[in-house]
Each structure stands twice: as C-alpha cells, then as structure tokens.
Amino acid sequence: MTSPAVPDPAGSDTDADTSLLAPGWTGSPAASATGDRAYLRALLDAEAALTRAQAALGLAPAEAADAVGAAVAAPAAFDARSLAERARGGGNPVIPLVADLTRAVGETYGPYVHRGATSQDILDTATMLVAARTLDVLLPDLARTEGALARLAAEHRDTPMPGRTLTQHAVPTVFGLKAAGWRALVLDARDRMTAVRDALPVQLGGAAGTLAAFGAYGATDPTALPAAYARELGLRAPVLPWHTLRTPIADLAGALAFTAGALGKIAVDVLTLSRTEIGEVAEGSGGGSSAMPHKANPVRSALIAAAARRAPQLAATLYGSLAAEDERPAGAWHAEWEPLRDLLRLTGGAARDAAQLAEGLRVRPDVMRAHLGLTHGLIVSERLSAELAPVLGRARAKELLTELAARGYAEDRSLGELLAGVPELRDLDLADLTDPARYTGAAAALTDRALERR
After folding, report:
1. Are 198 and 317 in contact (CB under 8 A)?
2. HSE-up of 125 (CA within 13 Å, CB side)?
3. How far apart are CA 23 and CA 132, in angstroms?
4. Is the pTM of this model over 0.85?
5. What is the spatial distance between Cα 176 and Cα 151, in angstroms, rounded to a whole number?
6. How many alpha carbons lie under 13 Å from residue 234 in its C-beta half-sphere?
7. Which one, of 203, 247, 208, lies nearest residue 326 by Cα?
8. pLDDT tens across 58-91, in order?
9. Which of 235, 393, 420, 446 gets the highest tally of CB atoms within 10 A of its CB?
10. Where are the beta strands (DSSP E) in 13-167?
C-alpha cells in the first residue's frame, strides 16, 4: 500500500493556509481583513504613506510619492509567498518587500522608498492598519448583536425563568434580564474596542527611535513627520516612537480578549440553556452531526466559546512582550505577530457568530415556566422564609420549610399544598406567595434600566 503524498512545504498556492481547522473565523470579514494579502496591502500602504508624508513636508519630490503610489497600486505584483520565504534572511518581511518595491518604483525615485525608516516602523504601522480595518468590520457585528439582544430583552422583560447559581435553581428571574446582561457586556466590549480603534497610532522612529535619519535627509523638525504620516493613514500620531513601548499592542490585546470573553459569556449560557434536558432556548439553525441525524448542535455558541477560551492565552503572549529590551528587542517584537493576528481573527469571527446567534435565538417561555416547578415550589423558599418569619418566628419558619421541603420531594407534592395544611398559615395568600412568577424582584425594572443605555 502506498503512503499518502506529503505536500511540498514550498509548493504552490494550493498548499496555502485555507483555515481548514478554523471554522470560527473562516469566511468572516475579519478573515479577509487579516489574511496575508491584506497584510501585504497594509505594508504597501504604510510605505506609500511614508513617501507621501515626506513629500508633504518637502523632504521628497511629489513625483516620488506618485511613483511609489503607482507601484503599490498593483499589490498582485508582489509575491507574498516569496516575501515570506525571504523574510527568514532578515527576520521580517519588510526587508525583502523594500527591495521589491524599490525595484518596482525604478531608478529615479527608488531611493525615496522607505527613506529614513526601519523595518519595525513599517511592520508596526501596517499592523495598526490591519487592526483598524479589522475593527471596522468587527464593530458593526457587535452593533448587530447588541440590537438583537435589546429586542430579546424588551420582548421578554416579564418572561419568568429559573435563576441558577452553582448549576442549581436559586430564585426566579426573567429572561429579559439575562438578555439585558448579555447586551451590557456587548456594549462594554463596543466601548473598549471603539476607544482602542480611535487610538491606534502609526509607528515612526527610525533605527532606534530618534528620528535621526530624517534629520540627516534634510528635515529641520523631524518630530513633525510622525503627525504627517498619521494624517496620510488616518491613524493617530504617537507622542513618542513606540518601538519598545508596546502600549498600543497591549491595549488592543486587552480589548480583543475582553470582547471574546464577553461574547463567550453569551455562548456558554446558550450552551447550558439549550441542553436537551433544559431546552429553554435554541439556536435558530443548529449544526448537524456526522453520526446522529437527529442532532441540531449549537454550533455558533460552541465556536464563540472556543474563541473565548483561546483569547486570554493569546493576549498573555502580547502582554509578555511588553518586557522588550533596548530600542528593539530580539524576539519580543517577533513574538507578537502571529498571536495578534490570531486574536483579531478569533474575536472578529466570534463577533460574526454572535450576531447570527443573537438574531436567530429561539426562546421558549413555556419551558422556562414549567421548569420553575421542578423543585416543588422551593425556588421561592427565600421569599417564604421572609414572609413566614413574622408569623411563626424565624427559627420555626426555617424548621418548617426544611421539613416540608423533604416531604415535598418524598411525597411528590408541592410546597404550596403542604403549607396549606399548616393551621397558623390559613390567613395567608399561599397561591401568591408560592407562585415563582410573582417573585422576580426588580428584574423587569432592571431590564428597563439596562435598555436605557445606548
């Protein structure tokens, strides 16, 4: 028997990463915004903007900016696979890219390509562009999710269901409050992502963060160049070059990990509530099984939960890279690239899936209502303890409820029925006191309050 063919690692584009093992983000807007071609586009945009910025300050002829712009207008002319292979020589893809771009621009204006910059300036700036473009497609998905959850919260502000703590029934709540809580997390994520998006900066410092080369090329005030560069790209101008001051990366990592976790909270709740034995909610269209035709798996929730579990470790790598020695670290900078892209992809994919999940979620109020009776009325024992104490005394009330709880399970009778046989309680409205739907506290009012947030 012959062995399966082993693909050549340096083979054709058909061997490229097809995200076969990444259903959580494949096909998402974030996938397109973070692919190799998108990164190459950002690198070329960063190079072209640098030449334009220098031309705007009189440090390069306008014709040079035009020539670089014309060269980068055809990104397909640059071979991403070749750049990746040649990046091994210098440790990053900017070095071979500059060589190819200089050759494409031509002899006359080639010297203005990358002039005064270092590889980290371009790669960091391109990373900020990729992040900005990814967040620009991620934030609308958060908005879709928030809108769908707001509708669910309003529709179900009075839909009673069991509240659960430590996996067990606690006291009644309403589904609207649960949905409002999910929405609050999504809004928290939106606020953090928006703040990070608005603060994404260009990076420009030259070889060691001093802007010295730009002065050598004729800039009377090199500190004006980062602001001009930022204007060309629609990013922020940093106060200082951030070669080894990695606040922008850490802030981005934190916001992405928070967002993945916030969406993960929704997912794990749906996973629990959609169990066969619970069935209080269901995904709009579940996924199938290769072996069991009857199944409709909560696939969207599973993929979001997977992203939430991976995101913290990716962010941890990026936080670890804050300890970056000297004016360019050997390894800490390089360690950022793949985890950050993975984090952008995972969170972007989770946002896409969360929007689909929230918009298609099916809620089953009748099942929720039925589950309120699973504990034979004990789900309102907190209320009964408070209401019976003035009548029976605190100690007697606790003793009675403990006794009746055991009898209720043993005799398969409701707590209300057993309480009706206690002479001291004949004047109480036991039907009201033992109705779980009438013991949801301020849940509806809290839902309304949460929905006031825009």
Report:
1. no
2. 35
3. 23
4. yes
5. 9
6. 9
7. 208
8. 999 999 999 999 999 998 999 999 999 999 999 9
9. 235
10. 160-165
